[in-house]
Design a protein that fits this description.
single chain, about 160 residues, mainly alpha, about 75% helix
């Protein structure tokens, strides 16, 4: 692709010294990819455990509140690693990825996953301390959890396809 085919702001990101350094380094790009994958394991792994708990598939004897309090900090660290490494990887390839449909779909799914999490945490999750034992997980929590799993699997799948199209 010719760099002139992209908007000026994409060209500026592509030519940013840190983008060039990542793109031209033999080690930096694969190191960032490794961190990105590690961050995804932390982020999506924790989210999957919690979502499967809210769906009643996993760890049914464990009260959701304490489990969430223990796992959510891990997911936040995972998100920080994914965000930082993903931003650098995207910046390094911004010109070549600008027209990539899988990237666009991934970003839409990511936005949907984050919006789902925000809505969940500002609504039904506020009463998580009441769930467990005789009080079942509300159906709305299970609905949020199901949507979360779908969105995050979509993010992972489309993210993997970016490299091939």
């Amino acid at each position: 692709m010719i760099i002139g085919d992209v908007p000026d702001w994409v060209r500026a990101v592509h030519e940013w010294p840190l983008s060039v350094a990542v793109r031209e380094s033999e080690l930096l790009f694969p190191i960032l990819q490794t961190f990105h994958i590690f961050g995804l394991v932390l982020l999506v792994g924790v989210i999957a455990i919690l979502d499967l708990r809210f769906l009643g598939v996993l760890l049914r004897a464990q009260a959701p509140g304490p489990l969430a309090r223990w796992l959510l900090p891990i997911s936040r660290w995972g998100f920080a690693v994914v965000f930082a490494s993903g931003a650098l990887l995207l910046a390094a390839q911004s010109a070549s990825l600008y027209f990539n449909e899988f990237l666009r779909v991934k970003l839409l799914l990511l936005a949907a996953a984050l919006m789902n999490a925000l809505l969940f945490h500002t609504s039904v999750f506020r009463r998580v301390h009441e769930w467990g034992g005789a009080v079942p997980v509300p159906r709305s929590a299970a609905a949020f959890a199901g949507a979360s799993l779908l969105f995050w699997v979509g993010v992972l799948v489309t993210g993997r396809y970016i490299a091939y199209f």
